[in-house]
Amino acid sequence: MSVDAPTWPADFAARYRAAGYWQGETFGQMLRARAVQYPDRVAVVDPAGAGRRWTYAELDRRADRLAAGLRDSGIGRGDRVVVQLPNVAEFFEVVFALFRIGALPVFALPAHREVEIGYFCSFSEAVAYVIADHHEGFDYRGLAAKVKEQAPTLRHVFVVGEPGEHTALSAVPREPAGPAGPDGPQASDLAFLQLSGGSTGVPKLIPRTHDDYLYSLRGSNEICAVDEDSVYLVVLPAAHNFPLSSPGSLGILCAGGRVVLCPAPAPETAFPLIEGEGVTITGLVPPLALVWTEAARSAPHDLSSLDVLLVGGAKLSEAAARRVGPALDCTLQQVFGMAEGLVNYTRLDDDEETILTTQGRPISPDDEIRIVDDEDEDVTPGEPGHLLTRGPYTIRGYWRAPEHNERSFTRDGFYRTGDIARATPSGHLVVEGRAKDQINRGGEKIAAEEVENVILGHPAVHDVSVVSVPDDYLGERTCAYVILREAAELRPAALRRFVRERGLAAYKVPDRVEFVDVFPHTGVGKVSKKDLRTTVTRPAHP
Ligand code: OOB
Q1: How buried is 454 (Cβ within 10 angstroms: 0-12 exposed, 13-18 middle, 19+ buried)?
Q2: Residue 281 near residue 230 (C-beta atoms within 8 A)
């Protein structure tokens, strides 16, 4: 066990190596190998950045030189660096530079604000924070200034674009890198910290190693038929585990293919890029897949290069699944994954019924799946239950969270996904629901407790409970049930503004606020979220 997080026991590690899953390669070595193999092939296209096209040789050289500059700034092996960038080419330059050093990117999303970033920086004891100057009307430099006050370890803020009071990323000296020292990372070391969707008051950090993540990429590439001719459009935020690794941008780079960054997910932006770059594969959350499905009817663009559309992050209804493939004239691949590890795909050659009605089966023959009841006993095969998993790319514990790990993992190392699923006779999984206290808002995960804690900070609020309400478009939205203090007055809009101004990501601001006098309780006296959910779905005046 490492000091920061539990890892695989030696016998499991030996088995995963012997099976050829863990190949002893780091991300730095992987990129170098591709640069040698395909120096002149285009690796990354950034339409927002004046249409920049970086070849494998160029990306490799940039990563190396930036790594040298960052090392000179005092960033070393094992240091944490919070990376919060939109879909721009520098994302890959920075991340591969950090991989080369053995420093750990902490992957934040562009939507995160002061509460989340302040926490990531202070909890991870980050030494640096990398941002864009602005994106979608938001200025990240002001956010960085506030975060610096809360995070004493933060020595550097690097900015892509105009730096303001911080340091321009382009101003980091780019010395030609010397030979990598003996202190470079090992494949069994942590490569980065990914974010958990979370179900508790504060988000958890997910420690992924070079070995385990590269295995999930190679496995995904095989299942999604990714090779050096594949062109992947990064539509979702680049740092999220789905567009990063399923098979995502890193899978594509691993195969020698081309990554095209989409600056915004709307069809008006994405469709011309699919046509212009000959995009063959991309990944979307269900609401976006439906928007694209509608838009494809009347779009003038030629989308015929698109072979595979992955849809995941939230449940795709069967009705929606039926429409997506024909409208975009491509093969639908459902993907049910999690940043903690396990990723399931429907296979390209699965029969239609399986593709439309299941969320796929695991990447690896060594992904162990258990479906259990509340007492951790296996359910009758085919029945729904709690999904537990263990395998060669599923973590054995969160980073610096021993108490939480006691609850989220079984004694023998299975991760409790919090999902309710059933298995078909072919081993495909169907997601039936969720046991964790989380809202899945069109693929964006919201830990109810995190939002509740912010709302409890309002002086007029006595108690609060945040639950999901069904939504035709997003699948789920959030509703905050609030009990006010005696004689206190508050309007829903004022409470929503309060949450936003506290510095929480906009997608976590409750869509709806309902004031009530009491909460329904369970037999043991806990607030019954199940009953609250049915309250809100019931018409107000039947
Ligand atoms: C992906 O990763 P996360 O970490 O943002 O969220 C994981 C959770 C799962 O535990 C499950 O509750 C939900 O998201 N989920 C799905 C789903 N895919 C993810 N629920 C129903 N159907 C699906 N197809 O969301 C993620 C990571 C890698 C690949 C794809 C998605």
Answers
A1: buried
A2: yes
Q: What is d(CA 423, CA 418) in angstroms, rounded to the nearest whole number?
A: 16
CB atoms closer than 10 angstroms to residue 541: 4
| Residue where the block lists tokens 């508790």 | 200
Question: Looking at residue 343, what is its pLDDT?
Answer: 99
Q: For 149-189, what is each residue's pLDDT tens digit?
A: 999 999 999 999 999 999 999 999 987 766 656 678 999 99
| Atom in ligand 1 nearest the alpha carbon of residue 434 | 12
Reply yes or no on whether the pLDDT at 528 is more than 50.
yes
For the chain, list the domains and their CATH numbers. Answer: 27-39+53-185 (3.40.50.980), 442-534 (3.30.300.30)
Q: Which of 238, 208, 229, 267 is nearest to 135 (CA)?
A: 238
Ligand 1 centroid, distance to 510 Cα (angstroms): 21
pLDDT tens-digit readout, 295-350: 999 999 999 999 999 999 999 999 999 999 999 999 999 999 999 999 999 999 99
End-to-end CA distance of the chain: 57
Question: What letter represents residue 226's amino acid?
Answer: V
Q: Whose CA is nearest to atom 2 of ligand 1?
A: 338
Q: What does DSSP say about strands 281-284 and 231-234: parallel, antiparallel, or unpaired?
A: parallel
Query: Can you give the pLDDT at residue 536?
Result: 61
Is the CB–ligand 1 distance for residue 251 below 6 Å?
Answer: no
312 class by beta-carbon count within 10 Å (0-12 exposed, 13-18 middle, 19+ buried): buried
Which run of H or E residues covers position 99?
Answer: helix 90-101
Residue recorded with tokens 């179900």: 199
Distance CA 53, CA 49 (A): 9
* Of 338, 367, 393, 507, best ligand 1 pocket probe by most atoms within 8 Å of the beta carbon: 338
Ligand 1 contact via 431 beta carbon (within 6 Å): yes
Look-up: residue for tokens 């162990």?
368
Mean pLDDT of the 95-120 span? 97
Contact status, residue 333 vs residue 309, Cβ threshold 8 Å: yes
Q: Which atom of ligand 1 is nearest to the CA of 194?
A: 4
pLDDT attached to residue 455: 98
Indicate if ligand 1 lies below 6 Å from the C-beta of 246. Answer: yes
Tokens of 393: 């790319």
The closest residue, in CA terms, to atom 22 on ligand 1 is 315
Non-local CB neighbours of 252 within 8 Å, separated by 6+ positions: 226, 230, 231, 232, 258, 259
The closest residue, in CA terms, to atom 9 on ligand 1 is 338
Please tell me the distance between residue 25's alpha carbon and the centre of ligand 1 in angstroms.
Answer: 27
Are 233 and 308 in contact by the 8 Å Cβ rule? The answer is: no
Radius of gyration of the chain (CA): 23
What separation in Å is there between the alpha carbon of 451 and the centre of ligand 1? 20
Q: Which atom of ligand 1 is nearest to the CA of 196?
A: 4
Ligand 1 touching residue 359 (CB < 6 A): yes
